[in-house]
Specification:
Blueprint lengths: L1 E2 L9 H11 L4 E8 L2 E7 L4 E2 L3 H13 L8 E6 L2 E7 L4 E4 L4 E5 L4 H9 L21 E4 L3 E6 L3 H6 L4 H11 L4 E5 L7 E7 L4 E4 L3 H13 L8 E6 L7 E10 L2 E8 L12
Parallel strand pairs: 1-2, 3-5, 10-11, 12-14
Antiparallel strand pairs: 2-3, 3-4, 5-6, 6-7, 7-16, 8-9, 9-10, 11-12, 12-13, 14-15, 15-16
Length: 277
């Protein structure tokens, strides 16, 4: 997380991409203070800028909390390329609005679905199984709460662990469908929770340990399937195969006939320092 000095503007895009590449994290957030309750955050992978990154937003506002620039019990505005988002700060967590949830087309059944699963190292047959509601058939679908990903169901944790993508082919598939990557998941977790893995080699991210935007899209996908209830907070476990397990909280709210998705969590400080550009 990079907090810009008071009154300073963002560096050039080239500098921010190079800084992200030097820091070697999947995303680096650059934070500009606009007012006491308003911030402008931009997100860069080592390859390019993205409109929004959920876990980097949580990290950004955790950093602002540690620096005394925000405080618990208040709501702040985060201006992003995906729109203006509300950030709710508490002592235990940071909960953020995702962009407007959108459902796009399913990946066509047959050859297209078989291609997707083959690229991910799996067979497509039987992956749509839902233990809680056998009558619900889960199918791969493009979904967004700020960034478009393919939601790819698998039948259990064993299948999830077996995923071994052909990253070159997945990069081309992501271009073909106009998505950031693939968010594979199972609702049939042995612990009763949702488990997920995220792959975005198009943006130099082979696998990611925590992906807020993708899990926001996932919880909305499951809401549309009738597997998630409004106002209830659900846990998604991600990063297990990387040895970096993360627990992401996700929620769908409905107010005034409008559906919103919130994703939350907390963070820890690994290191601090100053960057001179």
């Amino acid at each position: 997380m990079v907090i810009l000095p008071q009154g300073a503007d963002f560096p050039t895009d080239e500098v921010m991409v190079k800084t992200a590449a030097e820091l070697r994290y999947s995303e680096t957030a650059f934070i500009k203070v606009l007012a006491a309750d308003t911030f402008n955050v931009r997100y860069f992978t080592p390859a390019a800028e993205v409109d929004l990154c959920g876990h980097a937003t949580i990290g950004a506002f955790y950093t602002l909390l540690q620096e005394g620039l925000v405080e618990p019990g208040k709501v702040y505005t985060n201006k992003t390329l995906a729109g203006d988002l509300n950030i709710v700060i508490s002592e235990e967590s940071i909960l953020m609005d995702m962009g407007d949830p959108e459902l796009f087309e399913h990946i066509p059944a047959g050859e297209a679905t078989a291609e997707l699963y083959q690229i991910m190292g799996l067979q497509a047959a039987g992956q749509e199984y839902c233990q809680q509601k056998p009558e619900v058939k889960l199918l791969p679908r493009k979904v967004s709460t700020g960034l478009i990903d393919i939601m790819m169901p698998v039948k259990n944790e064993e299948e999830l662990a077996k995923i071994a993508p052909d990253f070159a082919a997945l990069t081309e598939l992501s271009k073909k469908y106009g998505v950031v990557g693939v968010h594979a998941f199972t609702v049939n977790g042995s612990d009763g929770r949702i488990h997920a893995r995220n792959f975005a080699p198009l943006y130099d991210i082979d696998e990611e340990a925590a992906t807020g935007t993708s899990n926001g899209a996932l919880i909305y996908y499951l809401f549309d399937c009738g597997l998630v209830q409004p106002e209830q907070i659900y846990s998604v476990i991600q990063g297990e195969q990387m040895g970096r397990p993360s627990e992401i909280a996700a929620q769908v709210t409905v107010a005034g006939g409008k559906e919103r998705v919130k994703v939350g969590g907390f963070a820890v400080t690994l290191a601090t320092g100053e960057i001179n550009i």
